[in-house]
Design goal:
By secondary structure, the protein is an all-beta fold. Helices cover 0% and strands 58% of the residues.
């Protein structure tokens, strides 16, 4: 089964797109060319297989900023996060989060992330498998400026193996020294 969400405009709400499959059945979900503004999570998928491409996700400042996430994909098989633009002028948790990818190659490519106040631009975690699988992170531009808190990273990789990072540009810049900030932070990786 497949689901396609194409050329949409979504403003406000807790989620722009919220899709949850099941562990037994992961539908192929395509979210393409949507404009999503002022949501707590722009695109949130759980237990899916598919593509999130060419979307523009923007969080704007408000009087009570929340920890915003642009794209949050968890428990995915064969994800392709491609050509998205995520802009946050408010408090950001993750611009792009990919967790627990398994069984098939996954891609985070050609994305532009600009975070004004946040923790992590791109976060990959728990994406390891006993099967032959490779993750690709390439041609991305991730700008975290200004860094305004400790433990802020343009890209963070945690407990993931078989990951290739190629031709990316990562920037984490601050006017003040914050501990544990980095353009690329890799921790607790498994050995394959």
């Amino acid at each position: 089964d497949s689901i396609a969400i194409l050329n949409c405009t979504m403003i406000g709400g807790n989620f722009g797109v919220h899709y949850v499959g099941s562990n037994a059945r992961k539908n192929y979900v395509t979210i393409d060319s949507c404009n999503i503004t002022a949501c707590y999570r722009g695109i949130y998928t759980n237990y899916t297989n598919g593509a999130i491409r060419h979307n523009h996700i923007k969080q704007v400042p408000n009087s009570t900023p929340q920890n915003f996430s642009g794209i949050y994909s968890n428990y995915v098989v064969g994800a392709d996060i491609d050509g998205n633009q995520v802009d946050s002028l408010a408090k950001m948790e993750y611009a792009i989060y990919l967790g627990n990818a398994s069984n098939e190659d996954y891609y985070i490519r050609n994305n532009h992330v600009r975070v004004n106040n946040g923790n992590v631009g791109v976060y990959v975690t728990g994406s390891s498998s006993t099967n032959t699988m490779t993750g690709y992170l390439y041609n991305n531009e991730v700008i975290l400026y200004p860094v305004s808190a400790a433990n802020s990273y343009a890209v963070q990789i945690n407990s993931s193996n078989n990951l290739k990072l190629v031709n990316n540009s990562f920037l984490a810049k601050s006017e003040a020294p914050y501990s544990n900030s980095a353009a690329l932070y890799i921790s607790n990786n498994n050995k394959s």
